[in-house]
Amino acid sequence: MKHAFLDHHSQTESPIHHLDARAKIIVFFTFILIGVSSPPASFLLFSLLAMALIGIALLARLPLGHLLKKVLVILPFLFVVTISIPFMKKDAIGGGYNLGLGGLSISQSGLWILWNVVIKSCLGVFSIILLSSTTSFPQLIKGMEKLGSPKIFTMLTSFMYRYSFILIDEMYRMKRARDSRCFGGRWFWQSKIIGHMIGTLFLRSFHRGERVYLAMLSRGYHGTMPETTGRRFGLEEMLFLSLSPFLLFLRIYIA
Amino acid sequence: MQTNKVIEIDHLSYDYPDGTPALRDIHLEVYEHESLAVLGPNGAGKSTLLYHLNGTLMGEGRVIILGIPVEKNNLKEIRRKVGLVFQSPEDQLFCPTVFDDVAFGPLNMGLDKESVQHRVEKALEMMGLKGFEGRSTYHLSEGEKKRVALATVLSMDSEILALDEPTDNLDPAGSRLLIERIQSIPQTKVIVTHHLPVAADLCERAVLLYGGRKIEDLPMRELLKDRVILERFGFDADYAQWMVERNVKFQRSEFPELRRVQD
Fold it and tell me: Where are the domains of chain A?
């Protein structure tokens, strides 16, 4: 079966990978917060943030090319913003293009909005990618839990992580079985089959849920997930965490 | 050589919620350190019987585990005593990492973190999975998953192990490895399977179910020689004969009556 990973590179060995998940969650979220809350014209701050993130990526021995490729997920969102710019409020004309249909002009404020969206989403997404590439998913969930995220939420997420791959595998198996029995025909017929497949998948997941619950009960589950041990905050974590107040300082005095 | 009775089942009947009869008037006694195979065709009620051992299902009749009746109020205690391993490791293993899964039972028992750590290490070592703690369950092979599933109940130190098709879906080598690991477990074992060779290697006594009823209850060596029963259940009697002759079974010969077979 296909083996999917959500957390590529999270098993690499590096000083960043060894840090406690809590420290990484706090620092990367500070990056996002600082990035998002800065005015669009604070070029110096943005470049400092970008340099810091790239520095962390290098320290974590992550291939930059791979990370940048992942940042491309923001493209569809950017596209939506870009096509809506001509329809925004026109104060000062920043430029324009003529399609022979009377012409469209682009306002300066529209361009600022585009820049704002581009730089902030790039920084934000890059931070999240760094977090997920340096922290395995189970550690991430544990970190969230220790930071006070509601237990029901972390429990659901960990189940989702555990079973999403199995569900995807099951879907592929069904798809393969369907295709090997000469699936084809008219659109209407196809949609009916796909409907059946979704229904079957739901039923199977539902029954699996029942069985998993029984397995949990068999091992003494009584309503709350037990806590497991984790690593403690050490000097490295403190050093890494000190990035957060430093970023805050930059945000206040530079931007 | 009768030792303590650890499982007593009396007049047990069970119907599925839709009314289909699953078990009919089952009587069964299992003794300490015994290894019992529950054999039978698909749909005979083997797994259903197994689920009654720790109160996952509760039918009519009496089930007594180590002197404690299986009732709603005793479930917590019963589940400490009976470690049930489900057929599919995907159902048994629901945590993101191997460590979390093996630690789940002991943590629910309220043990402190150090003894949990110790138990997890011990259980994984018994299953030959040292160093697997941080691995994500999804990325293990089927054989490894099966062994982790066993480790999840070994870590609970239960007196009785109830295993549902432990070698299902495994290749011959993986199956052999798992059988050896199970043989090394000293606890009382109830093993549901439809593979006669697996049962012959692991158990000294067999119970045969058909249509929810107990048809036979006999020592494994007798079953292997009984062509009538074997053929009635669709087992290969020639193969069973060969197993008897080759003496592959009963490697654990602390049972005097079995030693006689090997001589």
Answer: 15-145+231-253, 150-218
